[in-house]
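I have a small job for you when you get a moment. Would you make up a two-line entry for one protein for me to read? No commentary is needed, just the two lines. Write everything out right here, beneath this request.
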Amino acid sequence: PPAANAAAAASKWVRLNVGGTYFVSTRQTLCREPKSFLCRLCCQDGPELGSDKDETGAYLIDRDPTYFGPILNYLRHGKLIINKELAEEGVLEEAEFYNIASLVRLVKERIRDNENRTSQGPVKHVYRVLQCQEEELTQMVSTMSDGWKFEQLISIGSSYNYGNEDQAEFLCVVSRELNNSTNGIVKEPSEKAKILQERGSRM
């Protein structure tokens, strides 16, 4: 009968009044986490919670509705999605209030990842300029030590003259990222880097 179908549909859907904002969801979604506040509120509708309802029959929850969206979406599809303008700490607070342990764990991981990214700060580089002759270029570039990257080659003309043959001179600019673990101190260069420095320091 239509009346029975209507009653069944009504019992399936739940209206929530969270801090003055209405949300509609199913009992199945709200009870996805059996130990959560929402499951106890909607699926074990007993006197223990003293669940108040407003004039429309919606469950009254005195919490910030801004952060309820990510909570409800997590229960719907199991993924943590937080808009850029929302603070993760706010979502964490609500996840703890609603007692959704798996979501609390996810939000804490997200906050930790963000803190790690922020603490690394901008990448710093250290640069060196090496002087070499044309015939030494290939060997010098091929023996650059790990971490050093070729940046620029500058021709500075011919300084040496062997018989009739001019040897072109070059300045080779190389760089490497400054490792955060060194706290701003450049580590002692490897043997290969020392060879490069010595070669570069010849005039």
Remarks:
- The chain has eight helices and six strands.
- Residues 101-120 form the longest helix (20 residues).
